[in-house]
From TrEMBL:
Pfam families referenced in this protein's UniProt entry, alphabetically: Ribonuc_L-PSP
InterPro entries, per the entry: Endoribo_LPSP/chorism_mut-like, RutC-like_sf, YjgF/YER057c/UK114
CDD domains (UniProt xref): YjgF_YER057c_UK114_like_1
Protein name, entry field: Endoribonuclease L-PSP
Origin: domain of life: Bacteria
Amino acid sequence: MSTENPVAAPVPQGDYRPALLHDGVVYTAGMTPRRDGQLVLRGVVGDTVSAQQAHGAAGVAARNALAAARSVLPDGAAGLRCLRMTVYIAGTASFHDLSAVADGASAALRAELGEAGVPVRAAIGVQALPSGAPVEVDLIAAVV
């Protein structure tokens, strides 16, 4: 488990909530790799962004999703158990290493929460993401 300072909950980039708690389950909005509101990387994986760069960006996006989830935890909650994560990757038509990129998000959650951070996962290739982000992560987690 990480001993680093936790990431602050991201500020919405539009008209939505970063996270919502309902009946003990937290749902996050899609989170891009932002720090202090600014994208750390822009571009398309397989073109202007390498798989390795996208792997790191996926970790940033996953930590943002986790911060959003933590921001709605009720008082007295022990923490979170990640249930499902979707990682969207803006890639070229010939880029197929989606799981390798998504592994960056999985690694970030595991580093923060140990085995409780390992969810089921989907890695989905898309044409474009908000603001030119190469990756976007959304998370569903249970309050424990």
